[in-house]
Design a protein that fits this description.
Radius of gyration: 21 Å
Structural class: mainly alpha
Shape: globular
Distance between the termini: 17 Å
Strand content: under 5%
Number of strands: 0
Order of helices and strands: HHHHHHHHHHHH
Number of helices: 12
Helix content: over 70%
């Protein structure tokens, strides 16, 4: 990565994403949304979109603006689009959430905020898709293929979301209402299963291999993993849309897609195990150890889904399943990798320009893993406890688990800020001659 440009706004995306994560955690602690309210209530819609758009999608976009150019060994199509995209996404999300609050009676009637939010979000995500898509398509091999599949899923996600927003505002007539009544599972699977999971898979291939000094996953293996996952998402979106149009029901389509989705998870586990076996760096750093817990969360999510489906309890516990997917798998992986990415990019920005001319610290000298470990352990323990409380139907104990999650995230964010501030780097290596301390929220030009 030395010699590659550092994305100026990646840290800004991370900071905004973490802010939205805290918003979501506060809502859960306060009992806003599921399980205190129904899974389809306006309060739950606020919580879900704060997590999936504000936290996970912004964090994913920030990481992709930095690492897609690395995947294809070419500069980003337009670095100048990243900040306007962030502005549009932030404004759109705020408008959308205000529309949901209006829909639920927590704000004065203003349902026009829903279409406005949808338009702004579509505009922001369109900038992201075009910028990253044109960059990734320069060399559509290996992990870049996963990114392209994820971006295609993102397009399907925001198309469905825009239709729903206009339908909730009453601007689409009976057609939009008909799609809204049946299409929510397609929207959720395209977002969580396609955009976030397929993209996370692709990025994790590169990050795990890079940080553990392991060879890349065999192209034929990763191609099979992507094919099964992309087929599951594509079947859900295309087949599900056709089923809605024909009014024939979604159960068959979703069942077949679930089989392929589980196959993709299994193949991904095989690929990740191969990376760990082939690594040259035998000692696992904290981010890798914590990433393994997120892989455990992914496996647990698959087992839970199978168990719920086999006992005909999936609909009753879909909230617990989604919670484990969002916080045990995706959020856990993002937090673990964010901890390493911030240290790595901070080292590149601060010491890369003077490397070879003066002594510099190692990347590991920027972190204090012993101090950070307890916050990650607390976070994962709280997520697993929260999942159990949802399955047991204990909303008050779930709020206690959410509070413990918040404490863990506060500790992790504090460690990330210390990394960015070079707080754990001893002098005189902290700022040798010619090195400039990084800005907290963006990379210096």
């Amino acid at each position: 990565m030395v010699g590659n440009n550092i994305s100026r706004w990646t840290m800004t995306y991370f900071a905004m994403a973490l802010a939205w994560l805290f918003v979501a955690l506060v809502l859960m602690m306060a009992g806003v949304g599921y399980p205190a309210a129904g899974i389809a209530s306006s309060d739950t819609l606020v919580l879900v979109h704060a997590v999936c758009i504000g936290w996970l999608s912004l964090a994913m976009c920030g990481a992709l603006f930095q690492f897609v150019p690395v995947l294809v060994a070419a500069p980003l199509f337009s670095e100048n689009w990243a900040l306007p995209a962030l502005g549009l996404l932030s404004a759109g999300l705020i408008s959308l959430l205000a529309g949901f609050l209006s829909l639920g009676g927590r704000l004065p009637p203003a349902l026009w905020l829903l279409p406005l939010g949808a338009v702004l979000l579509v505009a922001g995500f369109s900038l992201v898709v075009v910028d990253l898509g044109l960059t990734a398509s320069l060399r559509p091999t290996g992990p870049a293929r996963f990114v392209l599949a994820g971006l295609a899923s993102l397009c399907a996600t925001f198309v469905f979301g825009a239709i729903f927003a206009f339908a909730l505002a009453g601007w689409t007539g009976p057609v939009g209402g008909f799609i809204l009544a049946s299409g929510v599972p397609l929207h959720a699977i395209a977002g969580l299963g396609g955009w976030l999971t397929l993209t996370a898979m692709g990025v994790s291939y590169r990050l795990l291999a890079m940080f553990m000094l392991a060879p890349d996953v065999d192209d034929r293996q990763s191609r099979m993993t992507l094919a099964t996952g992309a087929f599951a998402v594509g079947l859900t979106v295309a087949g599900g849309s056709l089923a809605i149009w024909l009014a024939s029901g979604l159960n068959v389509v979703l069942s077949i897609a679930a089989v392929f989705g589980l196959a993709s998870v299994g193949l991904y586990g095989r690929d990740i195990a191969g990376i760990f076996r082939a690594r040259k760096r035998r000692h696992l750093e904290l981010n890798m150890r914590m990433a393994t817990l997120s892989f455990v969360g992914l496996a647990a999510m698959a087992v839970l889904g199978i168990a719920l489906a086999a006992t005909d309890m999936f609909a009753a516990h879909v909230g617990a399943f989604a919670f484990l997917a969002v916080f045990g798998w995706l959020s856990g992986l993002v937090l673990a990798k964010l901890y390493k990415i911030v240290a790595f990019l901070t080292w590149l920005e601060t010491y890369g320009p003077v490397m070879g001319r003066t002594p510099t610290p190692r990347v590991q000298d920027l972190v204090a893993e012993g101090r950070a470990t307890k916050w990650f352990v607390l976070y994962y323990a709280a997520v697993w406890s929260g999942t159990l409380m949802l399955l047991a139907g204990e909303p008050h104990l779930f709020r206690a688990a959410a509070a413990a999650m918040t404490v863990g995230v506060v500790g992790i964010v504090r460690e990330v800020i210390r990394i960015r501030r070079l707080a754990d780097v001893a002098s005189p290596l902290r700022l040798p001659g010619g090195a400039i301390a990084p800005h907290l929220l963006f990379a210096r030009a």
